[in-house]
Amino acid sequence: MRMVPCLALLVCLGLAAVTDVLANESFPSRPLTLLIGFNPGGSTDIQAQVLAEVMAEDLGQRVDILHFPGRGGGNAAAMLASSQVGGYVFQYGHSNPFVFTPLTAVTSYTIDSYRFVAGVALEQSAFVTGPDTPFANWEDMLAYGRERGDLIYVTQSQYDQLLIESIMEEEGINLRILPTSGGADMAPLIINGEAHFAFSGGTHSGYTDSGEMRMLASPTRDRLMGYPDVRTLHELGYDLEMHTHRIIVVPADTPEEHVTRLSEAAQRATEDQRFIDVTESRTRMPVTFINEDDLSALLAAQTVQFSEGLQGR
């Protein structure tokens, strides 16, 4: 496995005339590209490095990694939608860029632009603070924010920003927003004390044991697998949640047999001890395989819920 230079982008996405060979080839007959919508070093990248290795062994072809950060994975999703190489480029990351971002921003894609090959893990997102902030729990953070008049917050996506803005509006606290393109960019801002708290999709798992990050709350439906003492937003009194999956996605026109082959490789990856270890031990997320039909239904339902929620704002 090797990293793909961004200069090779057009080649990787196959925007040249390659469709004439797709119908006659046995998939996969050449290396594949795993697209990540975040910078290297975050929890998505940590998982993807192992996922690419395991899937490459199953598929019999190298799986290279291409990072294309921005808009919480939305830039990569837009790139993927324009891919014309029949599944040789697939994206790995959380589900929000596909079900939420098109509802809140002008995008070149919709949920119908994709096939959702498989879900492989349940994201364990959290709100975190650094080692030296003058608070260690959610209530004390709110009290500190009211005393100061504002709090500095590090966001990674439109969804987490909308969620926290809704909460802070209810609490009467102003927010100063620092946007980032992923957990790798969020971490130093929190550790160095440049912000009071932040959203983390899973990067916090590499910093909590050392005390460089402290957990404040979780937006997930249930308490986090790796942090059972951390309260959810529901438990803190908010009727809000963020229930996202780590998924594998291809463009909607990907041939059926290619989707089936990728799905089989993804399912076997969730049974491989290397992927289980990096997911459950290092990033502290439960491995949860979801097939295409069930995942598509789940994401379609989430899109409806998000749309209704946005109309109510």
Number of domains: 2
Evaluate the radius of gyration. 19 Å
Largest sheet: spatial strand order = 2-1-3-10-4-11
Mean pLDDT: 90
What is the CATH third-level topology name of the largest domain?
D-Maltodextrin-Binding Protein, domain 2
Q: In total, how many beta strands?
A: 11
Principal-axes geometry comes out as globular
Order of helical and strand elements:
HHEHEHEHHEEHEHEHEEEHHEH
Number of helices: 12
Poorly predicted runs are 1-8, 14-23
| Largest sheet properties | 6 strands, mixed
Going by CATH, what is the homologous superfamily of the largest domain?
Bordetella uptake gene, domain 1
The CATH architecture of the largest domain is: 3-Layer(aba) Sandwich
Task: Please identify the oligomeric state.
Answer: single chain
Q: What is the percent of helical residues?
A: 25-40%
**Helix- and strand-based class?**
alpha/beta
Task: Please outline the helices and strands.
Blueprint: H1 9-13, H2 19-22, E1 32-36, H3 43-59, E2 63-67, H4 74-81, E3 89-94, H5 96-99, H6 101-104, E4 114-122, E5 126-129, H7 138-148, E6 150-155, H8 158-171, E7 174-179, H9 183-191, E8 197-200, E9 214-217, E10 245-251, H10 256-270, H11 273-282, E11 287-290, H12 292-311
Parallel strand pairs: 1-2, 1-3, 6-7, 6-8
Antiparallel strand pairs: 3-10, 4-10, 4-11, 5-8, 5-9
